[in-house]
Write a structure and sequence with these properties.
Layout (H helix, E strand, L loop, with lengths): L8 E7 L5 E7 L8 E5 L4 H5 L1 H13 L4 E4 L16 H19 L4 E6 L1 H9 L6 E7 L5 H24 L17 E2 L2 E2 L2 H8 L13 E6 L11 E2 L5 E6 L19 H14 L2
Parallel strand pairs: 3-4, 3-5, 5-6, 6-9, 9-11
Antiparallel strand pairs: 1-2, 2-4, 7-8, 10-11
Helix pairs in contact: 2-7, 3-4, 5-6
């Protein structure tokens, strides 16, 4: 998928004086919508594999008139910080800092908050503290942290087992480091501190979010994802809509980074929904 519209005005910058975060703001050509959008990246291996998709997503939103901010969480990408400081509460505060920064640059209008996987969960955690939030788009959010930790461990073991098999093959290095697959404090090449692992294991996200009268889209693409709540109207929350775009191949990107793709249909559906609910 290639963006072919007029190029938006781009503003890369750092914000927050203590432990600065890296942000990348796109301003559309012409008069922007009154609603601006923030995109929250996933974490770890998924951050790397979906980075290009987020770039395309932000370009398509800018083509629809949105001012769009994407940013790196503390200790991720180009933002300051170390893995020892990673925590869900800190990353939730990063979302709120990004909201404040976006409004200081484009004005105090309504916002749409979007995220993928753990980024969606962190956006949902921050959402009740964001005044003027108009729409919340959650793409395959992590609702059961214990299942997520289990999945990460299985992926790590699979990766190490394959590395071990290659090392034992004729001509391989026969490296004993791969003899006993163990997630340890690393997962798929990224640090996985014990404190973050413990925090994730106790994570539970309830949808729709209580006391949040906001239009929410639950976008599901993973065929193996945990069961999700039924769509409908909650008495103390906004409308929860569900959209399923099954992409069985989209979650088999664990073997070769060069095979990373942009899930075109999903991104286009996300842009279409946001354009329809945001002025």
């Amino acid at each position: 998928m290639t963006y072919q519209g007029p190029p938006p005005v781009v503003e890369p910058f750092f914000f927050r004086s203590e432990s600065p975060l890296y942000g990348y703001l796109l301003r559309p050509q012409g008069r922007p919508r009154s609603t601006a959008a923030i995109l929250c990246y996933p974490w770890g291996d998924e951050y790397t594999r979906f980075h290009r998709a987020f770039r395309q997503w932000s370009l398509l939103l800018a083509a629809e008139g949105f001012c769009v901010l994407r940013f790196d969480f503390s200790g991720i990408g180009d933002s300051a910080g170390q893995p020892a400081g990673w925590s869900l509460s800190r990353w939730r505060d990063d979302v709120l800092a990004a909201v404040s920064q976006l409004r200081s640059r484009v004005g105090p209008g309504p916002l749409a908050l979007c995220g993928l996987r753990l980024g969606a969960t962190l956006g949902a955690m921050a959402a009740p503290s964001i005044p003027g939030l108009r729409a919340l788009l959650l793409w395959d959010p992590i609702c059961d942290g214990a299942l997520y930790v289990q999945e990460l461990g299985q992926l790590q073991q699979t990766m190490l087992s394959r590395a071990h098999a290659l090392a034992r093959a004729p001509g391989g290095a026969d490296d004993d480091r791969f003899a006993s697959p163990d997630p340890g404090d690393e997962v798929l090449g990224f640090p996985f501190p014990a404190t973050l692992r413990s925090e994730l294991a106790s994570l539970r996200l309830t949808l729709p979010i209580p006391h949040l009268p906001v239009r929410t889209l639950l976008l599901r693409t993973r065929p193996d994802q945990e069961p999700l709540p039924a769509a409908g109207q909650a008495s103390d929350a906004g409308t929860l809509e569900r959209l399923e775009v099954p992409l069985p191949e989209a979650w088999q990107w664990q073997e070769a980074l060069a095979r990373v793709l942009v899930p075109t249909r999903v991104v286009q559906q996300a842009v279409s929904w946001l354009s329809g609910v945001c002025p």
